[in-house]
Amino acid sequence: MAAAVADVIQHGGTLIAEAGTGTGKTLAYLVPAIFSGKRVLVSTGTKNLQEQIFFKDIPMLREALGRPFSATLMNDPNENDPNENDPNDPNVSNDPNELCFSPSSPRG
C-alpha cells in the first residue's frame, strides 16, 4: 500500500485501498507523504482517528524517521468565531476532521 501511495503522490492519479484494522494503513500513507516533500492534507472519517494520527502517529514518525516535517491539526469551525475563516477561501478548510502537514527545513 505504501508503494502505491508513493506512486500516486509522485505521478498523480487516484488510489482506492482497503485493509483490515491494525494493518498499518495510517503509516502506509503517512510515510510516503512525508518522504514526498509535498504538502499533504489528510481527511479522516472521525475526530478520534484525527487525534490518534496527530498525537500518537506523527510524534512516533518524527522520532523514527529523523526527518523534519510540520503538522497542523485543523480546528473545528464550530469552536471558533464564525467570521474567523472565510468559507469562500479555497485555502481554508472547514472540515473538523482534516489534518495538514508539510515538510519543514531542519533548524540550525
Question: Features of this protein?
Answer:
globular; 3 helices; alpha+beta; 108 residues; 3 strands
Architecture overview:
With 108 residues, the protein is of the alpha+beta class. The chain has one domain (1-9, 26-78, 94-108). The protein has 3 helices and 3 strands. The protein has helices spanning 2-11, 25-36, 47-65, and strands spanning 40-43, 69-73, 98-103. It has a 3-stranded antiparallel beta sheet, covered by helices on one side. Helix 1 (2-11) runs parallel beside helix 2 and helix 2 packs across helix 3 (47-65). The N and C termini lie far apart (35 Å). Mean pLDDT is 77; it is low at 102-108.
Number of helices: 3
What value does the average pLDDT take? 77
Q: What is the SS-derived class? A: alpha+beta
Task: Give the total of domains.
Answer: 1
| Unreliable stretches | 102-108
Approximately how much helix is present in the residues? Answer: 25-40%
Distance between the termini: 35 Å
* DSSP, total strands: 3
